[in-house]
Amino acid sequence: MKRIMLRAKIHRVTVTQCDLTYEGSCGIDQDLLDAADIVAYERIELYNVNNGERFSTYAIPGARGTGEISLNGAAARRAHLGDLLIICTYGPMQQTEIDDYQPKIVFVDDNNKITGQK
Fold first, then answer.
1. Which pLDDT value is given to residue 13?
2. What is the radius of gyration, based on Cα positions, of the chain?
3. Cβ of 110: how many Cβ atoms within 10 Å?
4. pLDDT category of residue 23 using cuts at 50, 70 and 90
5. How many CB atoms lie within 10 A of CB 83?
6. Mind telling me the catalytic residues?
7. SS3 per residue for 71-118
8. N or C: which end of the chain has fewer CB within 10 A?
9. Sign of the four-CA dihedral 25, 26, 27, 31
C-alpha cells in the first residue's frame, strides 16, 4: 500500500501579485522552487492563512530572487495581495520509505526570502 505524504512545504509566503486575466497557475520565485524541489507545472496545494481558503493549481517559475508569489486566473480570487499562504506538494510513498523520510520545508521572511530549511 502507498500513502500520500507531504513532500515539500513553503511556509507562510506573502502574495505579491494577483492577475485574473492570466490563464492560471501560481508563479513562485525560482529560488523558492529550487529550495522546495518543486518543478514547473507540478501540482501544488495552497492554504490561505488569512481567510482559510484551500485550493490547488500548478507552479510556474517566477523571476529568481524577487520573492514573487503570483496567483493567476481563478486562483487570484482565493487571496488578496499581502495574504499569507502555505504552499505544499504531496507524493505517494511505500511504507518502507516513510520511516526515515523527512519532507523539504522552506521558511521565509516578510519579503519571501529564505530564512531556513528543514
1. 98
2. 14
3. 12
4. confident
5. 18
6. 25, 58
7. EEHHHHHHCCCCCEEEEEEEEEEEHHHHCCCCCEEEEECCCCCEEEEC
8. N
9. negative
